[in-house]
Amino acid sequence: MEWENQLIQELQWSNKISNKASKELVAQEIAGLAKDGDVIGAGSGSTVYLTLFALAQRVKQESLHIEIIPASAEISMTCIQLGLPQTTLWNKRPDWTFDGADEVDPHNNLIKGRGGAMFKEKLLIKSSGKTYIIVDESKLVSKLGSKYPIPVEVFPHALSHVENEIRLLGASKISLRLAEGKDGPVFTESGNFILDIHLSNIVPDLEQKLKAITGVIESGLFIGYDITVLMANR
User: Name one GO molecular function term (predicted).
Assistant: First the structure.
């Protein structure tokens, strides 16, 4: 017996999608990579959302058998809405993953995490044989941190300790991310806080230094990963 799932069936993307036509084109390109039997990691963001629709169309038209490992509840609910089968990292490893980014530097280093799902996104990328990062020109920067702070997911009771340790790393500003639509801080899907930190100099080992702080779950820095960047407005 199945739920009626009216709320999920009526789900729409939470924000206006910028450059939608260009993103739909690259979504079709990404969906075209899927092969029968693929297990696919799906990150978060509007292009990931649009790509799921393109994948669902292929599944329907070609009787393609794929499984999705989603990085967030929003992407998971979209899969339910579209009838895309899902699995988990407990029992499957992604053949490939697709995701977006907030910033990309000339060396394909990334800042991610405005949507708060960077821990699961990083886990998917680390677990995948291949990763495609989809961005438009607005996400290209000469230096990481030019447009956005670095998100850091923090165990709530470690908040003060982590703040102190990050200040010792030279952070010029640290903010506890506050929620919209509710009072108080944002909670990730794992029940943790997010700090947004500003550093003037993002050194190559900063990702490791942040991860080494007791209480830090993960950061939104992705430095030195084997990824392929695709442009949404070529």
Answer: ribose-5-phosphate isomerase activity
Pick from 33, 21, 22: which is nearest to 58 by CA? 33
Strand partners, 174: 197
Kind of pairing between the strands at 193-198 and 173-176: antiparallel
Distance CA 132, CA 27 (A): 11
Domain with CATH 3.40.50.1360 in the chain: 4-139+223-229
Domain 148-219 class?
Answer: alpha beta
Pairwise pLDDT comparison (13 vs 142), residue with the higher score: 142
The architecture (CATH level 2) of 4-139+223-229 comes to: 3-Layer(aba) Sandwich (3.40)
> What pLDDT does residue 208 have?
97
What is the overall mean pLDDT for the chain? 93
Query: Which strands sit side by side in the sheet containing 173-176, from one edge to the other?
Result: 173-176, 193-198, 150-154, 216-219
Residues of the chain with CATH 3.30.70.260: 148-219
Cα distance between residue 100 and residue 220, in whole Å: 12
Residue 123 parent element (H or E) = helix 118-127
Distance CA 172, CA 176 (A): 14
Q: Does pLDDT of 217 surpass 80? A: yes
Residue type, 115: G
- Crossing angle of helices 73-82 and 46-62, in 10° steps, is 30
The residues annotated as belonging to the active site are 121
